[in-house]
Design brief:
Order of helices and strands: EEHEHHEEHHHHHH
Helix content: 55-70%
Number of strands: 5
Radius of gyration: 19 Å
CATH superfamily of the largest domain: GntR ligand-binding domain-like
Shape: globular
CATH architecture of the largest domain: Up-down Bundle
Length: 228
């Protein structure tokens, strides 16, 4: 075993194991590891610079999150996708986020407002670039999208709710990356209304817009025809 494979070694403040877990999880969510792709241990060991034992731990962890499927003696593969699962994920995201919005809007203070404004500014800037035809930063766009929606609910007062929403949002994001689902001015307009509703503490409007936002994203992803 090389020194890079030793659990507990630090990389950017993270253990090698945690760093590899985050990289692999990101590779699944952003489609670099495709649905139903076989995850061969020897190849992954070389790609992520970790031991086989650490790799198995990571794959089991990702399996518990529903991002990897254990195939018994045949090993592991990236979790498949389906229209039915996308609909379930979208419905659960809406349920969690709508509830968290109401709690967050009631409790958020000035610092929360500042975070919402700042995260929207980054997202809106990138959405304008993409609307103009620059699709070179899709991963950064989705990161900013995640940050904006997380900022909206960040004052909800429940870390469990935040963590659960983040896990579901990642699964929703995975489908968006597979379908390359960018709705242009429609989504950007919905984000602007969500920002205004947050500053006005208008949770009713925000939840109505969020429902359209999630449903629109679902329909747009399905229309692309890339989800088997």
């Amino acid at each position: 075993m090389t020194s890079a494979e030793i659990d507990g070694e630090q990389q950017n403040g993270l253990t090698v194991s945690e760093n590899a877990y985050r990289r692999m999880r990101s590779d699944i969510i952003f489609g670099r590891l495709r649905p139903k792709q076989k995850l061969k241990l020897d190849g992954l060991r070389d790609s992520y610079g970790i031991s086989i034992s650490t790799l198995r731990e990571i794959l089991n962890r990702l399996s518990s999150e529903g991002l990897v499927v254990a195939e018994g003696q045949r090993g592991f593969e990236v979790a498949p996708v389906s229209v039915e699962n996308l609909k379930e994920v979208a419905a659960l995201r809406l349920l969690l986020e709508a509830h968290a919005l109401k709690q967050s809007f009631a409790a958020g203070g000035v610092e929360w407002e500042g975070d919402v404004v700042a995260s929207h500014h980054k997202l809106a800037t990138l959405e304008r670039r993409m609307a103009a035809g620059d699709m070179s930063q899709t991963e950064l766009w989705k990161r900013y999208d995640w940050e904006f929606h997380q900022s909206l609910i960040s004052a909800c007062g429940s870390q469990v709710l935040m963590d659960t929403h983040a896990a579901i949002f990642d699964k929703y994001l995975r489908y968006q990356m597979i379908a390359l689902s960018f709705r242009g001015d429609i989504a950007a307009s919905e984000h602007r209304v969500l920002l205004e509703a947050a500053l006005d503490r208008d949770s009713k409007t925000a939840r109505e817009v969020l429902a359209r936002h999630v449903q629109g994203g679902l329909e747009h992803a399905l229309a692309a025809g890339l989800i088997a």
